[in-house]
Write a structure and sequence with these properties.
Elements: H1 9-12, H2 23-26, H3 39-45, H4 47-63, H5 76-81, H6 93-114, H7 120-126
Helix pairs in contact: 3-4, 4-7
The chain binds zinc ion (ZN).
Residues 22, 24-25, 35, 41, 46 line the site of zinc ion (ZN).
């Protein structure tokens, strides 16, 4: 993800006939509001991914070494940097971050290859 090596629809649209729009968003909105699937959209801006990330801080707060401390914040920087400054307070932060990013990637691949559509809650529960 940090190297932008994910085959997003925007990149694949360099090939004729492949649309740049986000496939998970496709059936959720009308065609005039379609988002191009950039790397930022793929892992952060897509509505179902936002739903997933919105549930992560509460979970991390529950498992961290100081559960009564300040509430974790997950923003784009934290997604890219592996929970950023919070990582040192989260047990196995690298593993949890890697699994979170993997679940997003896996859900997108399942939609592309199998037509299986997972919403943000299903992605979170599978995490
Ligand atoms: Zn999307």
């Amino acid at each position: 993800m940090a190297h932008a090596a994910v085959p997003t629809a925007s990149k694949l649209a360099l090939y004729p006939g492949l649309p740049p729009e986000c496939k998970p968003c496709y059936n959720l909105s009308n065609s005039q509001n379609m988002s191009h699937e950039t790397i930022v959209h793929y892992f952060w801006l897509c509505p179902r991914v936002q739903y997933f990330w919105q549930r992560v801080p509460c979970f991390l707060q529950g498992i961290c070494n100081a559960p009564s401390g300040p509430v974790f914040k997950v923003d784009l920087r934290a997604v890219i940097t592996g929970f950023g400054a919070w990582a040192c307070k989260i047990p196995n932060a690298d593993v949890l971050h890697g699994l979170a990013v993997w679940k997003i990637f896996r859900a997108r691949a399942e939609l592309s290859q199998d037509g299986k559509r997972l919403d943000g809650l299903a992605m979170f529960l599978r995490w």
